[in-house]
Amino acid sequence: DAGVIQSPRHEVTEMGQEVTLRCKPISGHDYLFWYRQTMMRGLELLIYFNNNVPIDDSGMPEDRFSAKMPNASFSTLKIQPSEPRDSAVYFCASSAPGTGVNTIYFGEGSWLTVV
Amino acid sequence: AQSVAQPEDQVNVAEGNPLTVKCTYSVSGNPYLFWYVQYPNRGLQFLLKYITGDNLVKGSYGFEAEFNKSQTSFHLKKPSALVSDSALYFCAVRDPSTGRRALTFGSGTRLQVQP
To answer: How far apart are the two ends of chain A, measured CA to CA in Å?
Structure first.
């Protein structure tokens, strides 16, 4: 089975440009998470969705960041305008439905550099 | 609030020797605990989880972890380290009493296994 698929894997952009990161969760999973990894702050939860609905967006840094999940198989994380401090690895992850303790599976990440 | 502490930034061990990567947690209820591994330029891979029951949990690649409620710890162990185990290891916690589905991660511990 395919895992969580993220694109692009690497992106270098100039400050002020719009960046869109994409994610396809594992088929059948109804929870989707966006995490950010930096040396200084480690792994931080940005937002997560359940059945395409945002449940907790308290980790979204500021209004420049937005995330959407228009359907069960696709999500985007957008940064507009981008700043150098947004340089990080952005991970998408998903987990299966149900009330059990379902494992969260991560994608390979999108490496973002803002210059 | 839930939190995880990994007190060691790096652990060095010789190949063939046992290894331990430490993790302590703080939650208000009974925790769900996880270990993930990250190889260079890759996403996080699930190793094992503790939900309830036997305090010793076995996972992938020969790893195991011991849950100790009195010490609020969940240390990762392996009887005999391999050079290929060298990677970044993350402990994570979820407090089911909050209803929150996302995991909170520790800062990570870099494991270096020397030949």
So the answer is: 36
Minimal Cα distance from B92: which residue of A?
Answer: A43
**Which chain A residues are closer than 8 Å to B45 by Cβ?**
106
Output phi, psi for B35, to 5 deg: -125, 135
Shortest CA distance to A80 belongs to which of A36, A47, A114? A114
Burial classification of residue B65, based on how many CB atoms lie within 10 Å of its CB (0-12 exposed, 13-18 middle, 19 or more buried): buried
Query: pLDDT value at position A1?
Result: 62
Interface of A with B in 55-84 (CB under 8 A): 55-56
Average pLDDT, chain B: 95
